[in-house]
Amino acid sequence: MGIESFEQGQKGEEAAERYLLQNGYQILKRNFHSQQGEIDIIARDRDVLVFVEVKNYSFRSYGSPLGAVRKSKRESIVHAARTYLLKNNVKDTNCRFDVLTISRHLDGSRRIELYKNAFFIN
After folding, report:
1. Which of 41, 48, 50, 55 could lock onto 65 through a cystine, CB 3.0 to 4.6 A?
2. Would you say 105 and 24 are in contact if contact means Cβ atoms under 8 Å apart?
3. CB atoms near residue 70 (< 10 Å)
4. Which residues have CB under 8 Å from 83's CB, separation 6+?
């Protein structure tokens, strides 16, 4: 990943965090890492612990940002979520996996969409 891509990802995660805060989420952690995965944002939405994957795309990107969260990516997020729950001794808590997409357009505008319960653990 180049520096420009990294910086764009950081800006996307900052925009995602602002959006989530404006929508009543409490941010607990950003960029949580486990051996096999990473979670961009861990937050609380009322009584639900939420693991949020942020997808930040420009007008040049092809396909749906939500579609970019493929099976292998979901598996790595689930692994990281399990690690977070274990390390923080979290039990008897409802959890869900959300995907937040940011689409940037040629005119500089952005569209942010939040997909609650974007995927489930099988």
Report:
1. 55
2. no
3. 8
4. 34, 35, 37
pLDDT digits (tens, 9 = 90+) for 53-84: 998 876 555 556 566 678 888 999 999 999 99
Asked if residue 26 lies in contact with residue 73, where contact means CB atoms within 8 angstroms, the answer is no
- Phi-psi domain of 3 (left: phi exceeds 0; alpha: psi -120 through 50; beta: other): alpha
DSSP secondary structure string for all residues of 79-97: HHHHHHHHHTT--S-EEEE
- The Cα–Cα gap between 27 and 50 comes to 9
Predicted TM-score of the model (pTM): 0.87
3-119 maps to which CATH number?
A: 3.40.1350.10
Domain residue limits, the chain:
3-119
Name the token pair of 90. Answer: 């979290």
